[in-house]
Amino acid sequence: MADLSNINTVSDLIRENEKPNPTKEILKLIYKLDPGEGFTIAKDILESIAEFHKCGIEQYRKEGEIQNVGVWAYDLSLIESSLSLLKNVEL
Question: Which residue range(s) make up the domain with 44?
Fold first, then answer.
């Protein structure tokens, strides 16, 4: 995400939007792949995010931060639902 604290004028915003975006460059490469490979990449990314959330939940549980456990568990359920949807797509 861009640092918007230095944006004071329309020109500043335009300059910020013209900066190269590495994420968009990576996506352009993925779009050139076979759709099945793109799905595999998407699933791998979601699985990594899910594992990150599982570790976060465990850490918050150990620290006794129950509210954060609930928030992260909810997010994990959404991520797992997204994974389930992707796994059921047939190409």
Answer: 7-87
